[in-house]
Amino acid sequence: MNPSDSSPPVNIEPLKRDPTEWIVGGYDVHVIFTQEYKQLALDLFERFRAFVIDQGMVHDRAMVFADPVGPWPTPMWQVLLRDQSMPQLSVDLGMCIGWLMLNRGSLSVMIHPNTCTQDGGYADHAEHSVWLGESIDLKLEIFNR
Questions:
Q1: Global pTM?
Q2: Are the C-beta atoms of residues 35 and 75 closer than 8 Å to each other?
């Protein structure tokens, strides 16, 4: 935090949340793209799905959205790393992050947990997410907070 920044901190107190209790729906992996990079993104999608399958990872909702959907202002694809035993889910997530770090090229990736918060997904997308590459502003007003 910049000492000269006059805006109040949102949440400076560390929370004490146990992922084994709070992450109840696995992790969503999203890759965003523009029409200019659509083919690159589709190729990455197929290669990522093949990696996930080859590794025997439990996954679901592997989908490509050619148009903006939900909070996404651009096309994107997603793969859900499904909830299973937390130690195995953590290993799978780490493998996927490593694979995406090495293979995403210039595409941006956002990963977020699916938690038991009661805000319709706001915190998962706005506060609990991590980005590889450039982040974008999401349409967070769609969430019920």
A1: 0.86
A2: yes
Query: DSSP string covering 33-85, please?
Result: --GGGHHHHHHHHHHHHHHHHHTT--EEEEEEESS--TT-SS-EEEEEE----
Query: What class has domain 20-142?
Result: alpha beta
Q: Which residues contact 141 (CB under 8 A, 6 or more apart)?
A: none
Q: In terms of Cα–Cα distance, which of 80, 93, 130 is closest to 109?
A: 130
Gyration radius (Cα) of the chain, Å? 16
Say which residue, 10 or 21, is predicted with more confidence.
21
| Gap between the Cα atoms of 16 and 3, Å rounded | 26
Kindly state the tokens that stand for 116. 């038991």
Q: What is the C-alpha separation between 123 and 78, in angstroms, rounded?
A: 18
pLDDT-derived band at 1 (thresholds 50, 70, 90) equals very low
Query: Which residue type does 5 have?
Result: D
**110 in Cβ contact with 131 (< 8 Å):** yes
The type of residue at 88 is: Q
Contact at 8 Å (CB) between 96 and 81?
yes
Report domain extents, the chain: 20-142
Residue with tokens 């195995």: 88
